[in-house]
Amino acid sequence: MEINQAYRFCEEVIAANSKSFYKSFSMLPKEKRKAVWAIYAFCRTVDDIVDEGADPVRELSLFKQEFNDFLAGNFDAENPMWLALSDVFRNYDMDDEAYASMIAGQEMDLLMKYYRTVDDVLDYSYHVASSVGLMLLPVLAPGKTAILKEGAIALGYAMQITNILRDIDEDLGLGRVYLPAELMKKYNLNEEDLRRKTVTPAFVSVWEEMAKEAEYYYQKAFETINEYPVSSRIPVKGAGLVYREILTTIRKKDYNVFGQKHFVPDQSKQQILACL
């Protein structure tokens, strides 16, 4: 397979699965943009194994071995994701550990269905989302990893908590509850209440407490945003602002996350990105 074909495949993956990220990161210079597509394709592949695989435990174990082989220089050159990613690893100072953390986070989804504390949710969020920021940093801000690492981790926390608050109903269908048990207990909310798919004052209280957690980490992430090169700063900040707007969208719909998935309207996205 030819390398440009491999990158086109990766672009199609992100365009089909994450319109917000695709729109935001399309503003990057060409070479950085292609690298982001490849990294996204890796993340999407491992995520789909867990959520859609016929035998996810075995398939994830095989994928982990494939990744270890990849690091050793052995991979299927006809697989567009591995081919594109090999080019990224050649051109940028990649953090192997961030990729391993993502795989470990997906393993958590196979092993854990409930989370006890907010800190437990943050640990999970680090593995499945902050790890993505750490994968992207060498591409988006070469030489700035040390100063931007904390902000990248914070943005991962914020975005993953936003995902959790948007996808409560969908996750219930998969037998997963990411709202921390201690917080649900505090407001006298239980899993059966969630399965009734009714927005109650207790539900809103739990939702808002987690939303405030997300908003704290968005703010923390934006504190160092000016350390990014200009070409990367706008896409990263744009992605963060658009994602944060999901919380506003849900509030406007009276917190009804049941039976529907909320997205930021295109007009709102354009307004946010136009102000950057």
From TrEMBL:
Q: Specify the pathway.
A: Carotenoid biosynthesis
UniProt entry keywords in alphabetical sequence: Carotenoid biosynthesis, Transferase
- Signal sequence interval, chain numbering: none
InterPro entries attached here? Isoprenoid_synthase_dom_sf, Squ/phyt_synthse, Squalene/phytoene_synthase_CS, Trans_IPPS_bact-type, Trans_IPPS_HH
GO biological process terms, alphabetically, are:
carotenoid biosynthetic process
**Coiled-coil positions:** none
Determine if Zinc is one of this entry's keywords.
Answer: no
Pfam families reported in the protein's UniProt record: SQS_PSY
Keyword Nucleotide-binding in annotation: no
Q: Which residues cross the membrane?
A: none
Q: What is this protein called?
A: Phytoene/squalene synthase family protein
Q: Which organism is it from?
A: Planococcus halotolerans
